[in-house]
Specification:
- Helix content is 62%, strand content 4%.
- By secondary structure, the chain is mostly helical.
- It has a three-stranded antiparallel beta sheet. Strands 4-5 form a two-stranded parallel ribbon.
- Helix 24 runs parallel beside helix 26.
- The chain is elongated, with a radius of gyration of 52 Å.
- It starts with a helix and ends in a 13-residue tail after the last helix.
Length: 719
């Protein structure tokens, strides 16, 4: 397919060589297959990577056989080091015997120094967590915090009242009461911010300088502007600013309380369960801590209710929190830390305890692995599949294939393609364009580019070549590639002679006819009637069948319609033109034609224009027998055999007919000539005169044809 779009590619872009010799095509298809496989493998690899991002089950001990196996189930492990399915299953065996052994060892280890150390470390961590929660609780809802919150609320009230008093004094002459209230101030602040946004190009304060009120949209007079300016200045006043800051400070403190939450008594009890189990003193202390949290939750509930209902007087009536010094908790933490260190020291010297602890860890991991075996084996299978896919992708690399294609292409294809391009440029008369053909391999494809042979590198050939040279070069490249696709493949060529001169158009017609003569189907779309005739002539010259179709647009969505009736008028013969003239006159008559009505001038002019060019076509088609035709480059001398001109009688009739047609077909008339339209009877006479002359000339031509060929002996004919 050759069209404007592909022409630009031939001239300026690198492109794939689509039609290759069998050997290169085989390698090219191998590259395409490898690239397709690599794409499929990558899709699978990406899906597996997403699945492998999910973490493995946790809770396994360190330094056990199971943890050593699981440590290898990561994407970085080579396939050779990946544990086998059998190896994983071997570590997941769990029978009643293993469970009995684990229960016995756990019971024996209850008094082990290592177990005692672990219990105390866990208890210490629980106490540290609780201590942090109590400190946070005291800072948020302790007595000092409540007093600070109450003071912020009272300060906000005092400063708001002061601001309202100042506003009342400033604006006491205004007709609307309560100017200076909190609601009014908030409304004014929003209005001021909005004015700054929509009138950003005006001088501050925009709420008064914009010339229009941002609330009611009315124009501002001088008094209104001054009033709004005073309101704006009030917002910047110390009293109003202090009131806004105090309100904001209280709201922030209240928000912290409203968003605060405390652990429940049950949660604290669960957290301290290990600590409570150490001894009676620890148990009693844990009960005391839980009671603190119960009181704290009750206080927080009442405090949120007071803030939500704005019952600020109730802030001073809250029941105090229990006295629970944080120092006591910290002291217990210190004692537990010392005890755990002592038990760790004892455990280090107890080899039996160490062996028992290691065996318990091993058994616990085996038991957990037996419970998670399905998940672990699935992870192992996905890792193996991913590693194998990675190996497959490595085998799909295109570099070796591309290298081999380049070697074979430069031996088999490039020389012939260069020679073909040189021949086509010569055939199309574009040998003056200094071009060279460059090729390279790219991801399994063969890429070719036409470059100008210039001392300076040209970015785009189209920047140097004319429109006609670009079209000729592109067509030469297209025709050069045809040698590689075989003669069984058809081609479609769309408007190939755009911007070409007459001689090069003839060369293109000759080349396309030659391609058709090779047995190839050639389909040509063209708007150029001269080129159409050139193609027809070249087809006759090389003796190939030539079929014509005329396409047109009928308006709206009806385009590309194949209809012989829609062919251009200059392509229609005399008989069809006479039929159209009859149709147009009939339509004129049906419209109640009146020669005094100027609205009929346009259709009358069109009708006489048809009469005039039909007189001309009679001369070309009948009198000269198409020996010389418009839009055809050749003169067909053999057609003169049936030329039938009678100069003495024909010329007066043609002269008078053309003269009358010219009078009504658009010529600018002299001032003293009448400009009336012809009457209907006169139009009929002019049409009949044209028909009569056409019939007479046609009969004369038939008689001449019957008289015999010159080569066979001419019979005398009196003209």
């Amino acid at each position: 397919m050759f069209d404007t779009a592909s022409a630009r590619v031939y001239v300026d872009k690198e492109r794939k060589i689509e039609f290759l010799p069998y050997e290169l095509d085989l390698l090219n298809k191998l590259g395409l297959a490898a690239r397709s496989l690599d794409g499929d493998f990558k899709t699978q690899e990406d899906a597996l990577n997403d699945q492998l991002r999910v973490a493995l089950p946790t809770g396994f001990s360190k330094d056990t056989a199971v943890s050593g196996v699981l440590a290898k189930l990561i994407p970085e492990t080579p396939l050779s080091d990946l544990p086998s399915k059998e190896d994983i299953e071997k570590h997941a065996v769990w029978r009643d015997e293993e469970q009995t052994e684990l229960d016995r060892l756990v019971e024996e280890s209850k008094n082990d120094p290592a177990a005692m150390a672990r219990l105390r470390r866990e208890a210490k961590q629980a106490l540290a967590t609780v201590r942090g929660n109590i400190s946070d609780c005291e800072s948020k809802i302790g007595d000092a915090a409540i007093r600070a919150l109450s003071e912020k609320q009272k300060d906000a009230v005092r400063k708001r009242e002061a601001a309202e008093a100042a506003a009342s004094e400033l604006f006491k002459e205004q007709p609307i009461p309560d100017i200076g209230s909190e609601t009014w101030g908030q409304m004014l602040k929003y209005a001021r911010d909005f004015a700054m946004e929509v009138f950003s190009d005006r001088e501050a304060p925009q709420i008064s300088t914009a010339g229009r009120c941002v609330l009611c949209q009315q124009e501002l007079d001088d008094d209104a502007s001054a009033r709004l300016k005073a309101f704006d200045e009030y917002l910047e006043d110390r009293a109003a600013a202090d009131a806004a800051a105090a309100k904001k400070g209280f709201e922030q403190a209240a928000t912290l309380v409203l968003n605060y939450s405390i652990k429940s008594q049950q949660e604290v009890g669960t957290l301290l369960a290990g600590f409570s189990a150490l001894d009676d003193d620890s148990k009693a202390f844990a009960v005391k801590i839980c009671a603190y949290f119960e009181k704290a939750i009750a206080r927080l509930t009442l405090l949120k209710k007071a803030l939500g209902e704005s019952e600020f007087k109730n802030l001073d009536k809250l029941e105090p929190l229990p006295d629970l010094p944080v120092d006591l908790i910290y002291a217990d933490e210190k004692k537990l830390a010392d005890d755990s260190e002592e038990f760790d020291r004892l455990a280090a010297d107890d080899q039996e305890s160490l062996k028992r602890a290691l065996r318990i860890a091993e058994l616990n991991d085996r038991k957990k692995l037996s419970q998670e075996i399905v998940v672990i084996l699935d992870r192992r299978a996905k890792l193996e599949e991913r590693l194998k896919i990675g190996g497959c992708r490595g085998l799909c690399q295109l570099t070796p294939i591309t290298r081999q294609i380049t070697l074979r292409r430069r031996k088999l294809l490039t020389p012939s393609l260069k020679d073909a391009l040189k021949d086509e440029l010569s055939a199309l008369r574009h040998t003056h364009i200094p071009v060279d053909l460059n090729d390279r391999g790219d991801l399994g494809n063969s890429i070719v580019e036409v470059a100008l042979s210039a001392q300076q590198r040209v970015a785009n050939n189209s920047e140097v070549l004319s429109e006609g040279e670009q079209r000729g070069l592109a067509l030469a490249c297209f025709l050069a590639e045809l040698e590689e696709i075989g003669r069984d493949h058809g081609i479609i060529v769309d408007d190939p002679v755009s911007s070409l001169d007459h001689s090069r158009m003839q060369s293109v017609a000759c080349r396309l006819a030659e391609e058709a003569a090779k047995g190839r189907q050639v389909i040509v779309f063209t708007h150029n009637i001269l080129f159409h005739h050139m193609l027809s002539s070249e087809a006759r010259r090389v003796q190939v069948a030539c079929h014509e179709e005329w396409m047109s647009s009928l308006g709206g969505s009806r385009f590309g319609i194949i209809d012989d009736a829609q062919k251009p008028r200059q392509m229609k013969d005399v008989s069809k033109r006479l039929a159209e003239i009859d149709d147009d006159f009939r339509e004129l008559s049906d419209s109640q034609y009146d020669h005094t009505d100027e609205s009929f001038r346009e259709p009358v002019v069109g009708l006489y224009t048809q009469l005039r060019d039909t007189w001309e076509r009679i001369v070309e088609e009948i009198l000269l027998n198409k020996a010389v035709q418009r839009f055809r480059p050749e003169i067909m001398t053999q057609r003169l055999e049936e030329a039938c001109i009678d100069p003495k009688n024909d010329y007066p009739l043609i002269f008078e007919g053309m003269k009358r047609c010219s009078h009504y077909s658009g010529h600018d008339l002299a001032e003293n000539l009448p400009d009336q339209l012809p009457e209907a009877d006169d139009i009929i006479k002019d049409i009949e005169a044209l028909k009569a002359f056409s019939d007479m000339a046609s009969q004369r031509k038939k008689a001449l044809r019957k008289s015999g060929r010159y080569e066979d002996g001419v019979k005398a004919i009196l003209l």
